[in-house]
Specification:
With about 280 residues, this protein is α+β, with helices and mostly antiparallel strands. It has helices at about 25-50, 50-60, 75-80, 165-170, 175-190, and strands at about 15, 65, 70-75, 85-90, 95-100, 105-115, 120-135, 135-145, 155-160, 200-205, 215, 225-235, 240-250, 260-270, 275-280.
Length: about 280
C-alpha cells in the first residue's frame, strides 16, 4: 500500500453480511474463504497487539510485493525501512473473494493510522491485499493501498458470490489474464469508456482521495495524458481468479518516472472471459 504512513489498512467495526440467497456453495471453498478473512483479521490484530513491523514480517515472505510507492520486495524493504515503533495502524476487511481451488484470494477494506496512545487518527484510506494459500496457511502476495479523507460510515463485509466451479473454469489459458490486462491497457488509451467491456457489474473502484465507488456505472474519469503499462499478472491454478499490476505513465513523456501504479483483481465470468472485480489506481 501507499500513502501517508506506509499504507496497509483500518478498522471501522465491520459487520459480516451475505445479502442474498446464493446457489449451493462448496463447503471446502467457503471454509477457505473464512480462513482467508480470519488471516487478514489476525494480521491486523497482531499489528495492534505487537507492532506494525512485527505483523508485516510475520505475514510476508521473499515473494511478497509491497508498493512504496512502486513495487518492492517486501522482506528486503521492511528490513531497510522499518515502521516506526509507535505507529498505530488498524484495518478491517470489507470485501473478500477466493479462487475456486482456494489457492489465491484477496481482501480489501478501510485502514486508519496514527500514533500509539494519541487517540487520534491522521491517516485514512483503503488497502488491497492479495493472498496465496500454502501448506502453512495464507501469506500475503501483494499489498497496495490508497489514502482518502475520513470515511462517512462503516463498510460492511460482503462475502463473495460463489465462484465458477473449478471444473468449468480450467478452460482459461494460462496466459489469458496477462493478455486481458494488456488489451485493457491498450483500450484505455482511447478513453475510460473502454472499461465497460472489461469490468464486472459489481466492480469496486479504488482511487486516491475518494472513498471506494461500486458498479460498472461508476466508471471513474481518466486523467488526461495517462497511459497504463502492465508489469505482470498471475492467476490461480483453477483459471478463474487472478490479479495484475502495472504503471501509470505520462503519454507525453513515457520515459519519465511513473506517475502512479495500478492493481486489478480479475475473475472469469460464465463465458470464461476475464472481468475486473477490483480496480485500484493511485495516479488517476
Amino acid at each position: 500500500m501507499t500513502n501517508p504512513l506506509p499504507v496497509s489498512i483500518a478498522a471501522l467495526g465491520v459487520v459480516a453480511a451475505c445479502a442474498q440467497a446464493a446457489p449451493e456453495v462448496d463447503p471446502a471453498w467457503r471454509a477457505a474463504l473464512d480462513e482467508l478473512v480470519a488471516s487478514e483479521r489476525a494480521f491486523a490484530r497482531l499489528a495492534s497487539d505487537s507492532t506494525v513491523q512485527f505483523a508485516f514480517i510475520a505475514n510476508v515472505d521473499e515473494a511478497t510485493t509491497l508498493f512504496r510507492p512502486g513495487p518492492v520486495a517486501a522482506a528486503e524493504w521492511l528490513q531497510a525501512n522499518p515502521f516506526p515503533s509507535d505507529l498505530a495502524l488498524e484495518w478491517e476487511p470489507a470485501s473478500a473473494d477466493l479462487a475456486a481451488d482456494g489457492s489465491l484470494g484477496f481482501t480489501t477494506g478501510p485502514w486508519r493510522s496514527g500514533r500509539r496512545g494519541a487517540g487520534t487518527w491522521g491517516g485514512h484510506g483503503q488497502y488491497l491485499t492479495v493472498w496465496r494459500r500454502g501448506s502453512g496457511g495464507f501469506i500475503a502476495v501483494l499489498d497496495w493501498g490508497i489514502g482518502h479523507p475520513p470515511p462517512r460510515d462503516m463498510i460492511a463485509l460482503r462475502l463473495a458470490e460463489p465462484p465458477i466451479p473449478a471444473t468449468a473454469a480450467i478452460g482459461a489459458a494460462a496466459d489469458g489474464l496477462a493478455i486481458a490486462d494488456e488489451d485493457l491497457n491498450a483500450a484505455l488509451d482511447n478513453g475510460s469508456g473502454a472499461w465497460a467491456e472489461y469490468v464486472a457489474g459489481n466492480v469496486r473502484w479504488l482511487r486516491n482521495g475518494v472513498e471506494p465507488s461500486f458498479g460498472a456505472a461508476a466508471i471513474p474519469a481518466l486523467r488526461d495524458g495517462l497511459t497504463f503499462i502492465s508489469l505482470g499478472a498471475k492467476s490461480a491454478r483453477s483459471g478463474d481468479f487472478g490479479f495484475s499490476w502495472g504503471e501509470q505513465r505520462s503519454t507525453a513523456d513515457p520515459a519519465s518516472d511513473p506517475v502512479g501504479y495500478y492493481v486489478r483483481i480479475w475473475r472469469t465470468d460464465a463465458d470464461h472471459s476475464w472481468k475486473v472485480i477490483v480496480d485500484g489506481a493511485d495516479g488517476g
